[in-house]
Amino acid sequence: MAPSLDYIKCPYCSADSSSIWASENGFNAVKCSFCGFIYVNPRPSQALIDSAVTTGIHTETTFEKSAFARRVPAKISFYRRVFSKLYSDLWSSAKPISWIDIGSGYGEVIEALSSLAPTGSCIEGVEPMQYKANYAISKGLKVHNTYLSSITRKYQFASSVHVFSHIPNFRSFLQDVVSILESKGEFYLETGNAADLLSNKEVPTELDLPDHLTFAGKKHLIGFLEEAGFEIVDIHEVRRDDLLNFLKNIVKKFLRRKVSLRLPYTSNHRALQIRARLLK
After folding, report:
1. At 178, is the pLDDT very low, low, confident or very high (cuts 50, 70, 90)?
2. Residues 181, 153: Cα–Cα separation, whole Å
3. Cβ atoms of 10 and 18 closer than 8 Å
4. How confident is residue 217, by pLDDT bands cut at 50, 70 and 90?
5. What does 56-74 look like in DSSP terms, one character per residue?
6. Is the distance from CB of 237 to CB of 274 less than 8 angstroms?
7. Is the peptide bond before 210 cis (omega within 30 degrees of 0)?
8. For residue 155, with 0-12 CB atoms within 10 Å meaning exposed, 13-18 middle and 19 or more buried, which class applies?
9. Number of Cβ within a 10 Å radius of residue 17
10. Res. 60 pLDDT band, cuts 50 70 90
11. Cα–Cα distance between 38 and 54 in angstroms, integer?
């Protein structure tokens, strides 16, 4: 039986004109003719998206696709360096903080933040996929196995690391973020800038459709955040097309996975690391 699909307008500007930007796993990612935002269209129905988010299994592809991924211990030291630099003003104080990582997966970001935070801080995560949440909990981490919309307490800080593309309605998601932040609370957002690229060939990894539903550019991310009441404190742009990524892609190509082989340090693709603060 064919999967249930929904045809949508551009999630950023609501325009209804687009062209195919890339195809993968039987799905098309289209680029808005007006604002350049990239999104899967048609995309799986909301019921299928919700099922994949909680179970980790995509049944709408031509083959059963898993979104379990794996725990990557190297992320802990990597994000410790990222947050140490981007929030250097925060760690110099001995005052405890409260922080929730949204879409916390196996908990690597929580571990990185916990190693930096002053004694007495509350560092938590929220992860709707039961398998990942249970793993993180088994490691002694405080993770809520639910959606962000179910969280009722307030935090000073929130983060979302490479979760953007999984979210079908980012405006609604940001409303939930705002609702759990204290006044003048801060939000860290990290995702790629695929919509800024001339071609999908510049993306240094698989697009992973339809697990990834949307792809933004720098202007879209700033636009979303400012519309939700945030001001931009800082933005770092980090290359992802290094030699290690190139070598990994050679292996993926050998395994017949859909990746582009491009010489290291020749792509305009960047991971955008954005620190934002509520104006009120």
Report:
1. very high
2. 9
3. yes
4. very high
5. SEE-SSSS-EE------TH
6. no
7. yes
8. buried
9. 10
10. low
11. 24
Nearest-CA neighbor of 225 among 272, 170, 147? 170
78-81, long-range: CB < 8 A, 24+ apart: 78/112, 79/108, 79/109, 79/112, 79/113, 79/161, 80/112, 80/115, 80/116
In sequence order, which ranges of 95-169 are alpha helices (DSSP H)?
A: 108-116, 130-138
* Contact (Cβ atoms closer than 8 angstroms) between residue 208 and residue 5: no
- List the Cα angle 43/45/51 in 5-degree steps: 115
Cα–Cα distances in Å, from 129 out to 133, 171, 250?
Answer: 6, 21, 30
**Global model pTM greater than 0.70:** yes
d(CA 112, CA 9): 38
In this structure, which amino acid lies at residue 108? E
Check: CB of residue 278 under 8 Å from CB of residue 178: yes
Q: Are the C-beta atoms of residues 124 and 100 closer than 8 Å to each other?
A: yes
Residue with tokens 């993926």: 252
Using an 8 Å Cβ cutoff, are 174 and 228 in contact?
yes
Helix or strand (DSSP H, E) at 190: strand 181-192
Q: How far apart are CA 165 and CA 49, in angstroms?
A: 12
Instruction: Name the residue with tokens 């990894």.
Output: 205
Q: Is the link from the previous residue into 42 a cis peptide, with omega within 30 of 0?
A: yes
